[in-house]
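We both want to read discrete structure tokens more fluently, so let's practise on a single case. Would you write everything just below, so we can both look at the same thing?
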Amino acid sequence: MSGKAYKAVLGFLFVLGLATGARAHQVTATEHRLDIVEKPNHTYHLKWTGPKSDMRVVFPSDFQELASAPGGERIVKCAQTLAGREVSIEGFDSATKEVLVRTVLLNGDVQVEILSGDRSSFTMLATPTKWQVAGTYFGLGVGHIFGGTDHLMFVLGLILILSNWKQLAFAITSFTVAHSITLALAACNVIHVRQAPVESVIALSIMFLATEYAHQLKGTRGWTSRRPWLVSFSVGLLHGLGFANALSEIGLPHDELPMALLTFNLGVEAGQLTFVAVVLSILFIASKLIRQRPVWIKVAASYTIGSIAAFWFIQRTFLIF
């Protein structure tokens, strides 16, 4: 089996395994989220989002509940500020592995924590430290990559089309530079684009890549193989806007904005390079073990990727209106 066939096998299995659970750009894969908004006089507004569960927030003993609503909203008041004190979540089970906790402090700063059964509490900070911001947003960047199937599918498409290692490295670098630019511009409110059109065009870009791969199988070199940096850079600008839309739902700390953006980008790249390394390792091992050449599976891979991307495009286009 040729190297292209191995790539096709991997692409086919990958998209089939993830098609049913494919999500657009989001920061983490967890569906459970708790928002805590600090108000004057040591009052805090709480709101749960996500599937119904038995999880509950545990505050220090000096708190009292002022109001609650059936939708998971609560208002609590503490005798003193929660800054420097511990808040925890109880009720984790096998179905609820992680919870994203987003705290908006009174001064406008944002503190983000990912809690789980192994780490079910955190210390609320008056102002998040630089290292706390770095660790949190690096983790969010990694989580964003593995929670965003469309991003991984585009990277996989590049691997399928580009057999030259130098071309692939150049394409990935161009992709990185481009999404870093638009992410920074959007995060600093220089540009703003609605999420639905961006996600729709991202799906269209994956359809384009699938078409390019199908043409390549017939012996026709497309833009991606001839100008990989141009295609990667152009699509990277779109993905950067997708990253920004996802990150805007979490928020960025005002005092540590450059650090948050830098470490989020580093987390994105760490996740992306890990994915590329795993894919290339599997391809290398497969090339040593498999010698047959099922040509049909390459065609199946291109059509499968294109069909899923087309479904996403239609689905997301309806959300524009």
User: Anything to note?
Assistant: The chain has two domains: 3-26+148-318, 33-129. Strands lie at 33-39, 43-49, 56-58, 63-68, 73-78, 86-90, 98-104, 110-116, 121-123.
